[in-house]
């Protein structure tokens, strides 16, 4: 995986990490309340993660296409270079 693809995904990965931390905070430390809180906290977490998909797909597609174009251009340059 190229650095450009990893860089493109960084904001969405950070958002998912923050959503996981929010899930932990929403569930809380009291095991007696977990049964009441897990459902709502999980719904919020899943929604937060799902909201990242459009931005992730857009960023990854752009980075992936740029990466593929650069590799194809390098291959073309190598194949068309004068032989010595």
In short:
It contains three helices and no strands.
List the helices and strands and how they pair.
Elements: H1 3-27, H2 31-50, H3 53-80
Helix pairs in contact: 1-2, 1-3
Explain this structure to me?
The protein has 84 residues and is mainly alpha-helical. The chain is built from 3 helices and no strands. The protein has helices spanning 3-27, 31-50, 53-80. Helix 1 (3-27) packs antiparallel against helix 2 and helix 1 (3-27) packs antiparallel against helix 3. The chain is rod-shaped and about 75 Å long.
What structural category arises from helix and sheet content? mainly alpha
- Give the percentage of residues in beta strands: under 5%
The gyration radius over C-alpha positions equals 21 Å
Low-confidence stretches: none
- The arrangement of helices and strands along the chain is HHH
Helix-residue proportion = over 70%
Count of DSSP E strands? Answer: 0
Task: Determine the number of helices (DSSP H or I, runs of at least 4 residues).
Answer: 3
Distance between the termini: 33 Å
pLDDT averaged residue by residue: 91
Number of domains: 1
Largest sheet: none
Rough outline: rod-shaped
Descriptive keywords:
single chain, 84 residues, mainly alpha, 3 helices
């Amino acid at each position: 995986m190229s650095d450009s693809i990893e860089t493109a995904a960084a904001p969405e990965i950070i958002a998912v990490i923050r959503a996981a931390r929010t899930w932990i905070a929403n569930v809380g430390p009291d095991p007696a309340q977990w049964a009441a809180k897990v459902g709502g906290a999980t719904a919020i977490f899943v929604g937060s993660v799902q909201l990242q998909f459009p931005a992730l797909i857009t960023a990854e597609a752009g980075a992936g296409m740029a990466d593929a174009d650069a590799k194809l251009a390098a291959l073309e340059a190598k194949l068309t270079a004068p032989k010595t």
